[in-house]
Predict the 3D structure of the following.
Amino acid sequence: MVPYTRGAVAMPILLGVQLLALAVVFVVSIFLFIAIRRAGPRMKARHQAIAALCAKHGLVASVAPGDFAMLGPIDPGWLANAFSSSDHGLAVADFNRPAGKHTQFFSVLTFTIAGLAMPHVAVTRRNLSGVTLGGSPILELESAEFGGLFTIRAKERRSAVMLLDPGMMQLLLDCGEVSFDMVGDKVLAFVNRAMEPAHHPTEPIEFEMLFKFWEGFIQRVPDLLRAEYAATQA
């Protein structure tokens, strides 16, 4: 009679677990391969649509390291479909940032308001995380409609109230899911793509909303704000 040994029983079990693990890895690899193959044409179609849209605004497929400095230290590989103006005063891109086991998907646009030195202000769609790190104290405005849709953070109340006049608030209400951060003469507008409804890749609606916001924002910066928060010239 063969004596019972715990190792003799454990070995087949261990081998079975290892084979199961290999099978799982194989299946997952096949799934990822198929997903990447299917996503390829969609990604190409999106890139072509974005390139055509950016060309209408005079942007080319080139960005400088400092174009998205408001995002903080980032891996250049987190940017895709990146375009900028020749003077780098305007830049736009898809921004995919790892966040633990998940990935955050944003489309971002940054531009300069020459001559302005604005204390930090952030206006973010409620229930959405911002794209920049850190933040200023929460500010409540008198508009219940606007406050119900956006969270406002501001380092200084006076400058934020001056910026968010009725015209600027209406622009944000008209621009879908666009949020923004501003400090100094820089503005960073963004859309959380994960929260957007599905749409055809040849219709980059996030970029369209961002360009609409940029054009409207520049036109609506109050003259009083430009006067009271003008950048000090050397």
Observations:
- The mean pLDDT is 84.
- The helical segments are 6-56, 144-149, 157-163, 166-174, 205-220, 223-228.
